[in-house]
Amino acid sequence: MSLSTKRGDGGETALIGGCRVSKNHPRVRAYGTVDEFTSALGLCRAHCHNAETADFIRGVQMNLIYLMGELASETPDGESPNAIKAAHVKELTEKVKLLEQDSGSFKGWVIPGDNIAQGFFDLARTTCRRAEREIVGLKDAGSAVRPEILHYLNRLSDLLWLLGRAQLNSK
Length: 171
What we know:
The chain is mainly alpha-helical and 171 residues long. It has helices at residues 26-47, 51-71, 86-103, 116-140, 147-168; strands spanning 12-14, 20-22. Helices cover 63% and strands 4% of the residues. Strand 1 (12-14) and strand 2 form a beta hairpin. The termini are far apart.
């Protein structure tokens, strides 16, 4: 089967389950922005200066692939073993606390681009925030969105800010 089905040529796409919607539907915008975010994280992983951070980012990318699947379904399944759960949010919260201990308190904003890795982490952070806004838009449009998803993305954007700052101190 070819990847190019031409079924989307009219501006519609299929959700998981077969329902066809506009490519501008809030659900499609939400999972599409998470897809962009996953790609931005790939740049972070390729350019970060720490193997442990790169491994962690790869795990986040896997979580986001499952999240895209949930967002692409009219009947999301929060019971799936791959769904974002409170434990995922807790893991991110603990990483934020650890990085804050290492780097100290907030010392002001930093202009992105002091090095390529820091710039990519800031790009990923802002893409994460946009994904979060799109998912809130999906929720505001009347779709059920599990709170763990929003908690996860909110915490993840905080963590990406800290990881970007960490890139300034490593080579």
